[in-house]
Automatic annotation (TrEMBL), chain A:
Belongs to the energy-coupling factor EcfT family. HAMAP family: EcfT. This is Energy-coupling factor transporter transmembrane protein EcfT. It is a multi-pass membrane protein. GO terms for cellular component: plasma membrane. Keywords: Cell membrane, Membrane, Transmembrane, Transmembrane helix, Transport. Signal peptide: none annotated. Pfam families: CbiQ (PF02361). Transmembrane (T) component of an energy-coupling factor (ECF) ABC-transporter complex. Unlike classic ABC transporters this ECF transporter provides the energy necessary to transport a number of different substrates. The lineage of its organism: Bacteria, Bacillati, Bacillota, Bacilli, Bacillales.
TrEMBL record, chain B:
GO terms for molecular function: ATP binding; ATP hydrolysis activity; ATPase-coupled transmembrane transporter activity; cobalt ion transmembrane transporter activity. NCBIfam families: ECF_ATPase_1, PRK13635.1, PRK13648.1. SUPFAM superfamilies: P-loop containing nucleoside triphosphate hydrolases. This is Energy-coupling factor transport system ATP-binding protein. It is found in: Cell membrane. Residues 6-240 form the ABC transporter domain. It is a peripheral membrane protein. GO terms for cellular component: ATP-binding cassette (ABC) transporter complex. Its main location: membrane. It comes from Lentibacillus halodurans. Coiled coil: none annotated. InterPro entries: AAA+_ATPase, ABC_transporter-like_ATP-bd, ABC_transporter-like_CS, ABC_transpr_CbiO/EcfA_su, ECF_ABC_transporter_ATP-bd, EcfA_1, P-loop_NTPase.
Length: 266, 279
């Protein structure tokens, strides 16, 4: 049984980024996603890259671990780069191979777009690396709070998210159990044509769903027995607190944004 | 005279109009600081009794009075404050993502301030011996540990009645002993009324009084010793008598004088030892 299972890709730690309020991290990333598109010069890209790499180092998570986490994305980044090389026809012709011309503009464009892509993925992955899913849930609940006025079920949404998180490992263990039970009855999950293998998933999914519904029913009863009656008048054990460090990080971020604006045309 | 905490007055219940009655005209009383066991085979109505006690179900006939309050749709939230319940499946009653979140859940529902919450959490987790697991996730705990957390989270709201609805049925023998020990110490400390619902006769030994259910009716109400004496009748209604009782029967057949009704290994040992030394 996989007892070391980490939901998402959270890496426990005590670094500055780990201890930041999740709302701070989410807000900064939200704005970062926008400002990445404002960069248009070597200097402005450097500013963003320094910010991103600086944050990465501040997590104290081994760099190779973070980069390994980006493996599936590398392909996309390289693909974007190549696509731009082929498609863009601006600037001077640099190389001419068998009628295919690579323009200097294409090189710059391709580099810029892949860089944007890389920065976006890197910075957003730092959120899930340093924040537990439950912290993210709390932060989302807190930040969506104003939507309560328009009757958006914020508390219910957050509760659903946290219960899903709590049951992921349980259901994974259950899937493993059922697949072993079905394998012992002769269901073959691993060999045979794709069509057969897809069919073999049915005897896995049906019992899993049946038990998930049964769990849901029992959980609802247990919650009611423990006095759950919706979000009204509830207090919370987990508290989010803005600290001095959150303020400082915001100052740093605003400095970065300002620097970005000043370096745009260089 | 002890205070009456739970009273069933001629309660009948069925799940639907066309369905058979699950409970037929049941009446009993439970007093404060009393340990009660309700036993019966599957489908005898014992779990229904538990759900009726804290308003998860409502009877079609009769009245249920908890701590002076009638169980109605309006009073269930106060009643659930008085009656805490631990269910059978350790996984399906664990709401929080970690032990401390789960213990806090019941308190959060009742709007208890955070400082008080932390205080009660520490108290109850140490009462069930789970304090060092505060930040552990449920899938890393054993069934027995999860049930201890469930007990802690119920205790955190200071109930007067603690119901264990087959709380040990899904545990291994070690988990079972673990829970029974925890519950006994907690009852001692908090002076709760304890209602153990089980089909395992071994677990009724700790109770002061046993209510035996059969097909929705109260079949008998007596002390564990008196109940154990009726072993042939118990077998007839589908309950297994405990090993020690069966063993003493066999010993008696071989001619050994096991005079009294024995409840556990120690008592049997005592009986045998005395009978040997007087021979």
């Amino acid at each position: 049984m996989n007892n070391t299972l980490i939901i998402g890709q959270y890496v426990p730690g005590e670094s500055l980024l780990h201890r930041l309020d999740p709302r701070t991290k989410i807000t900064i990333i939200f704005f970062f996603v926008f400002i990445v598109f404002l960069a248009n010069s070597v200097l402005s890209y450097s500013v963003l890259t320094i910010f991103a790499l600086g944050s990465m180092l501040a997590t104290r998570i081994p760099v190779h671990y973070i980069l390994k986490g980006l493996t599936p994305v590398w392909f996309l980044i390289v693909f974007t780069f190549i696509l731009h090389l082929v498609v863009t026809n601006e600037g001077d012709v640099l190389i001419d191979i068998f009628g295919f011309s690579i323009y200097s503009g294409a090189l710059i464009q391709g580099f810029a777009i892949s860089m944007r892509f890389f920065l976006l993925i890197l910075v957003t992955s730092l959120l899930t690396l340093t924040t537990t899913p439950i912290e993210i849930t709390d932060a989302i609940e807190d930040m969506l709070h104003p939507l309560k006025k328009v009757r958006f079920p914020v508390h219910e949404l957050a509760l659903m998210m946290s219960i899903s998180l709590r049951f992921i490992p349980t259901l994974m263990q259950e899937t493993e159990k059922i697949s072993k039970a079905q394998a012992s009855r002769g269901v073959d999950f691993r060999t045979g044509p794709i069509k057969e293998r897809i069919k073999a998933v049915v005897p896995l999914l049906v019992p899993l769903f049946v038990s998930a519904f049964k769990r849901a029913e029992e959980l609802a009863m247990a919650m009611e027995a423990r006095g759950y009656q919706g979000g009204e008048g509830r207090t919370k054990l987990r508290e989010l607190k803005f600290e001095l460090r959150d303020f400082l990080i915001f100052v740093v971020f605003i400095t970065v944004v300002t620097a970005l604006f000043f370096t745009r045309h260089y | 005279m002890r205070n009456k905490l739970v009273e069933f007055r001629n309660v009948s219940f069925r799940y639907g109009e066309e369905q058979p009655w699950v409970l037929k005209n049941c009446s009993f009383e439970i007093y404060e600081n009393e340990a009660i066991a309700i036993i019966g085979h599957n489908g005898s109505g014992k779990s229904t009794i538990a759900k009726l006690m804290n308003g998860l179900l409502f009877p079609q006939e009769g009245q249920i009075i908890i701590n002076g309050r009638n169980v109605t749709h309006d009073s269930i939230w106060e009643i659930r404050q008085d009656v805490g319940m631990v269910f059978q499946n350790p996984d399906n009653q664990f709401v929080g993502t970690t032990v401390q979140d789960d213990v806090a859940f019941g308190m959060e529902n009742r709007g208890i301030p955070r400082d008080e919450m932390v205080k009660r959490m520490n108290e109850t987790l140490s009462a069930v011996g789970m304090q060092e697991y505060r930040l552990t996730e449920p899938h890393k705990l054993s069934g027995g540990q999860k049930q201890r957390v469930a007990i802690a989270s119920v205790l955190a709201i200071f109930p007067q009645v603690l119901i264990l609805d087959e709380a040990t049925a899904m545990l291994d023998p070690r988990g079972r002993t673990e829970i029974m020990k925890t519950v006994a110490s907690v009852q001692e400390e908090r002076h709760l009324s304890l209602i153990t619902i089980t089909h395992n006769l071994q677990e009724v030994v700790q109770a002061e009084r046993v209510i035996v259910m059969n097909q929705g009716e109260i079949w008998d109400e007596a002390t564990p010793r008196e109940i154990f004496a009726k072993r042939t009748e118990l077998r007839e209604i589908g309950l297994d008598i405990p090993f020690v009782a069966a063993l003493s029967d066999e010993l008696r057949k071989t001619g050994l004088p096991v005079a009294n009704e024995v409840l556990n290994h120690e008592e049997l040992l005592e009986e045998l030892w005395i009978s040997r030394s007087t021979m």
